[in-house]
Amino acid sequence: MPESFEYLHVVTLDETNQLGNVYFAHFLRWQGHCRELFLRRTAPEVVSSLDHEHALVTVRAECSYLDELYAFDEVSVRMRVSEVVQNRMTLSFEYWRASGRRDLVARGEQQLAWLRRSGDGFEPVPVPEVLLRAIDAYLTEPVRTGWRA
């Protein structure tokens, strides 16, 4: 089994609804936090290119909810890279309760596209080599497919 990148989060009151459980959209927000911290830690040069040269676009995001989380629960968001094809990368997420009972509370997936800014829009470009090297430990399959620039 490949390694997973882990983001530990403590649920705050503002992330809950009137019933006291976490509002569903926050799970997707935590996917973004996990992804961005992964990039910051493993490929900071990719992050710096996002401001002026490249764009990282989420083309699909989903989450399946298995149990509830409440204020001050600790949740471990674990991310793996499940596929890299051409200019796209698919990430899989597991949300584990990290306080009290240690159980799986949700699963999610997100697909990202790497684009280069051009005069009047964007054009697809391969996932950067520096990021490909960084994600090797997090791939669920040993083979990447696609083209290279």
UniProtKB/TrEMBL annotation:
Top EC class of this enzyme: hydrolase
Domain of life, per lineage: Bacteria
GO MF assignments: hydrolase activity
Keywords: Hydrolase
InterPro entries from the UniProt entry: HotDog_dom_sf
EC number: 3.1.2.-
CDD domains in UniProt: 4HBT (cd00586)
Stated name of the protein: Acyl-CoA thioesterase
Naturally occurring in which organism (per UniProt): Nocardiopsis codii
